[in-house]
Amino acid sequence: MSIAFVLVNTELTSDMEIIGKIKDILTTEKDVEYEIQGVYGIYDIMLKISSDNEEKLRKIITEKIRKINKVQSTLTMIVIEEQE
Hints:
single chain; 2 helices; alpha+beta
């Protein structure tokens, strides 16, 4: 299973709105599991997303999550499967 951790930086006070949009996106995706939390620090949202298809994860992150209005930046870390 492919796992990615995504840290999301948002415009000020828009974190709850963006969490809702990410949940809307991910609940419609088949074979995708996720955990999402607002966090304190440099980043505003921490997302753990997993699927049996790594390419699907990449597309969701780059073509959907990163394009959400008010998302300023993301940092994506894909887990090395051989080291799990």
